[in-house]
Amino acid sequence: MVKNINKLSLKAGYMLLILFFIMITSVKIFSLDKLTVRTLTEVCILNGSSASTYGEDGSEIFYIKDGVIVNYDIVYAAGVTDEQIAQWQAEAAANGVNTQSSISNSDTQASSDDSNNSGTTNSSNNSNSSSSSTTSSSQTQTEAPTYTDEEIEAAWQETDRVESTCTEAGYVEYTNSLTNETKTEELELAKHQYEEAERIEPTCTEDGSVTYTCSVCGDTYDEAISATGHSYEWVTTKEAGIFTNGLEEEICSVCGEKSGATHTLSAKITNSVVLLIICGIIIVTVGASSFILLHKRQAKNVQQSKKS
Ligand SMILES: [Zn+2]
Ligand SMILES: [Zn+2]
Question: What is the tens place of the pLDDT at every residue in 105-127?
Answer without folding.
Answer: 433 343 344 444 444 444 434 44
